[in-house]
């Protein structure tokens, strides 16, 4: 385990390093368990004033859960994937309620499970290298790890847009979409880590972290985020009541609208229909649920999803065989409200 994830105490800073750079620091099941244990230990440790989690290397903070491992568990008849999701969500929810400043250094790729261990942070620190996404619909799944909570808190309909397309945001756009709190130049990362080792127990620690960020030129407001130019159309189209309506709306605007609209429509037509419907429904419900209720909904939905959803086929086509030709189980017209209720009875109870 010491190879995959490294824990250090450095002058008041608890430092967690995800150490699988060749796998873009994807989370394995043992990493999730050991990270949760370390956080619990450090929460009670007076020598630890703040915690920072980072990814080894410059490419990625964390590209998500170990999808290949989950696929092997499902197809072999093991139950490790069930325990993986359950314990991952427990860790994710725990981070939201952590009693000490928890800093996620979101440099490079931050996808799926990487969002799960960063969105509950008290300091979500982006850089100009950040590449933020919830790409689950591309592999036939729905945005989980608390996505029904944090995507539903994005301004306007940006959360629906991100969930239904799986598109990647840069640092400025992620700040604009409320998926980060600060943007720090990547060449200041080492200075940031060094200065966090100078925290004092004699003053509020969060205020000290804020002062360090400001002193290094970090910003909490975006500069010219590209997403802002698209916002009006995104809000108008992605607020529509169904996935079918959203795609139809994109097709109408694409006739004489900007190029990205047609590209988005084409992208959505390639995604798993049931995954998009699931994403749309969970984001809609998440607006009215607590964090705990969001995780409970995602856990119940995920367990059923593996039986009737497109997850296994999506992983096969994009990760295992890499033929990029998934055979999705349903078309959008087949996914009536009644059909969704019969496939996922837990949704009708929420």
Which sequence of SSEs, written as H and E, runs from N to C?
EEHEEHHEEHEEHHHEHHHHHHHHH
Helix percent reads 40-55%
Quote the beta fraction.
Answer: 5-15%
Radius of gyration: 20 Å
Number of strands: 9
Tell me the strand order in the biggest sheet. Answer: 1-2-3-5-7-9
Low-pLDDT ranges: none
What's the main sheet like?
6 strands, mixed
Outline: globular
Indicate the CATH architecture of the domain at 5-133 and 167-215.
Alpha-Beta Complex
| Name of the CATH homologous superfamily of the domain at 5-133 and 167-215 | 2-enoyl-CoA Hydratase, Chain A, domain 1
CATH class of the domain at 5-133 and 167-215: Alpha Beta
- State mean pLDDT (0 to 100 scale): 96
Predict the CATH topology of the domain at 5-133 and 167-215. Answer: 2-enoyl-CoA Hydratase, Chain A, domain 1
Q: Give the distance, in angstroms, between the N- and C-terminal Cα atoms.
A: 38 Å
SS element count, helices? 16
Based on secondary structure, the structural category is alpha/beta
């Amino acid at each position: 385990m010491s190879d995959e994830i490294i824990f250090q105490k450095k002058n008041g800073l608890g430092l967690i390093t995800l150490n699988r750079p060749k796998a873009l620091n994807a989370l394995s099941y043992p990493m999730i368990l050991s990270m949760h244990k370390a956080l619990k230990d450090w929460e009670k440790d007076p020598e630890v004033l703040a915690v920072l989690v980072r990814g080894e290397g410059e490419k990625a903070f964390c590209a998500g859960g170990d999808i290949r491992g989950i696929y092997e568990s499902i197809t072999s008849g093991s139950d490790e994937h069930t325990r993986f999701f359950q314990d991952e969500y427990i860790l994710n929810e725990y981070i939201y309620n952590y009693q000490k400043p928890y800093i996620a250094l979101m440099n490079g790729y931050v996808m799926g499970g990487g969002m799960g261990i960063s969105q509950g942070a008290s300091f979500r620190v982006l850089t100009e290298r950040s590449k933020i996404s919830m790409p689950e619909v591309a592999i036939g799944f729905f945005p989980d790890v608390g996505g029904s909570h944090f995507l539903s808190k994005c301004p306007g309909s940006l959360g629906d847009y991100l969930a239904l397309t799986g598109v990647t945001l840069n640092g400025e756009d992620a700040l604009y979409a409320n998926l980060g709190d600060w943007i720090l130049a990547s060449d200041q990362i080492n200075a940031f880590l060094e200065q966090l080792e100078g925290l004092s127990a004699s003053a509020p620690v969060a205020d000290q972290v804020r002062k360090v960020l400001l002193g290094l030129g970090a910003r909490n407001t975006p500069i010219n985020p590209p997403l802002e130019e698209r916002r009006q159309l995104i809000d108008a189209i992605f607020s529509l009541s169904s996935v079918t309506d959203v795609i139809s709306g994109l097709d109408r605007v694409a006739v004489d609208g900007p190029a990205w609209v047609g590209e988005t429509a084409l992208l959505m037509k390639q995604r798993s229909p049931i995954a998009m419907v699931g994403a749309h429904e969970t984001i809609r419900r998440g607006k009215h649920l607590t964090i705990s209720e969001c995780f409970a909904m995602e856990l119940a939905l995920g367990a059923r999803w593996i039986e009737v959803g497109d997850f296994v086929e999506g992983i096969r086509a994009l990760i295992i065989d890499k033929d990029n030709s998934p055979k999705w189980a349903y078309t959008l017209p087949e996914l009536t409200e009644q059909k969704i209720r019969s496939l996922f009875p837990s949704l009708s109870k929420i």
